[in-house]
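Whether sequence alone determines local backbone shape is best considered at the level of individual chains. When preparing material for the folding task, we compiled for one chain both its residues and its backbone structure tokens. No coordinates are needed to read the tokens, only the vocabulary itself. For completeness, the protein is quoted in full, as a sequence line and a line of structure tokens:
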Amino acid sequence: MRRLVSAVLAFAAVAPIGAAQEGLPFEARVRGAQEGRTTASKPLSEEEKILLVLSRFTPGATPELVDEVRKTGWSAWFDGQLKADLKESESYNQRILEFETIGLPMKDLFEKYTERVGKDATEAEKREARRRAAIPPRETLAWIMTRAVYSNNVLLESSCDFFRNHLSVSIDKGEVRFLIVDWERQVIFRRALTNFGDILAASAKHPAMLFYLDNFLSRRPPTPEELKAIETRTRKRTGSEERADEAVDIARQRGLNENYARELLELHTLGVDNGYTQQDVIELAKCLTGWTIRCRVEPAFVFDRSMHCGGDKTVLGQVIKAGGVEEGEEVMRRLVAGERTAKFIAWKLCRWFVNDSPDEAMVQRVAKVFSGTNGDLPKVYRAIVDDPLFFTRENFQAKFKRPWEFVISALRVTHADASRLAGLENALQSMNEPLYKCADPTGYYDQAEAWRDPGAMATRWSFATDLVSGRIGGVRVPSSLYDGLPLDKPREWKAILVKKILPIGGISEATSASIDRLVAAELQKNPKATPAKLGASIVAMLLGSPEFQRQ
């Protein structure tokens, strides 16, 4: 094991991650191409087009998936994926059935898993309550990983991945850990291939978002008459002037909360500082007062008119007539229909699916489709791949896998059997991208510079060696991965395994030479090397290679 880790680390030194042009702005790479410093003008081959589509719109290409797309053609395959109705395998369906909380209504979920223990509860009772409370979030994370690795509807999973970050919530904040089951099911999985307005509206009224960004607390400021009533009531109940003053101070603080209104503009629709002011944030927050949570029977959205700020509001220069819940709904409809939202979402989607520095003309064209279809996501995704700049050399392998993408693609390409997923959660934690635990509502970064440092790469290499060595609990790479390796010709194993791990594109001379050195060293120590050891070492090198990190 130490020899394998040392070999991978040594390999990193001779095979730096990424080409010299990675990380440069799109315009700089185009300029370099025009000056003859790159091969950017060379059209992509059909094989490269397949790889580009699969690397962007799936959780990871596999030889089987590549063969499928070769037969149907990438365009027909893409259209089929946009429907998100491909039949799942029996083994996939059996895995999903293991998660008892995924299909439970919110009411049943809370009744069964959120039992409150009293002060007199024994330690055993407290431990049992904590154990049961941990089941819903744990199963939700496992459900997401299972879908990403084993589902046939891979484009849907890629869209889910985008929206988990775009509409970020965290299970580390209080009740969100229970609400996440329904959030993932109803907001993300159900709507990730519908339209943007639908998923935005669903997120705004879901208890997970209402709780995470505190909008369930947002209410109109109390009137002088209400403050006087609180003071009188508290003095009568406690007989204390000091307690009465404290109650009034607390009531004053329980007013307008701008958190969600700000993130709705800054993160979910318009983008940072894109044509709105602090006053717009305040006015939008007023429109959203009374959007709260009913908790008596089950957590659910409810509009409480007693918490709502009355009167007309002006948001982004447009008057929102006084009403109730329809005020917030009207602002969201206008935001979705606005050109600035179309441009921001188009830019973010192009950055996510195409290039860290997407071409401005491409973004404008995609934004036009967004506006013309009212945010129809399948049509927007189709516009991205149909854009004349999508299949260009500048975009080919121009992105770098986030930790989630690296882990899932490694599991997919090795056909790993994940019967328990806690080890994978720990691996994502060590790589700083655990599911639904982003500390900031911005979601995790999707650009290479956030993930491509030596320390982060060392963690990836360790994961690769642990995966092939069977050191991740509940996860095993099947021996069938090494089928076809001629036992008497171990020096031929590299070429065979490259086809399995990197079915299109292959590896660079530097990577090839590094693997050759490893093979030579291992054969010198043990001329009768086995696929389970030497073959696994080669696979680990391939998973840790620069080529596997690129998209």
About this structure: The beta strands are 291-294, 300-303, 313-315, 318-320, 417-418, 475-476.
